[in-house]
Write a structure and sequence with these properties.
two-stranded parallel sheet, globular, alpha+beta, 2 strands
Length: 100
């Protein structure tokens, strides 16, 4: 496979409106997240569109507070940006392997 045939995919951290305030509260770096869900959603959708235009397959890795806390606990990692990004990468790999 040459570079032009390579599959480009990524996981993207994604939030749902009903969970956003709780997510901000439980994350150790919650104070640096967007002030409102609407602000986050606007920026996230623009970023997603940009990646898709560039030919990247984007998998939305929805962060649910309880499940994400368990995921981090099982791996012994903190609830922060690095863990959120690691989760998105892990999620994308799962989805890609499943053929989605």
């Amino acid at each position: 496979m040459n570079n032009s045939e390579a599959i480009r995919a990524t996981g993207m951290v994604w939030y749902e409106a009903q969970d956003f305030e709780r997510i901000k509260a439980i994350m150790e770096d919650g104070h640096v997240l967007h002030r409102t869900y609407a602000e986050w959603q606007r920026d996230a959708e623009m970023g997603e569109q940009r990646m898709r235009r560039d030919g990247v397959r984007v998998y939305r890795a929805i962060i649910k507070p309880d499940e994400f806390t368990s995921w981090c606990s099982a791996r012994g990692v903190k609830l922060n940006a690095k863990s959120r990004n690691d989760f998105a990468t892990w999620f994308a790999a799962q989805e890609y392997r499943a053929g989605r």
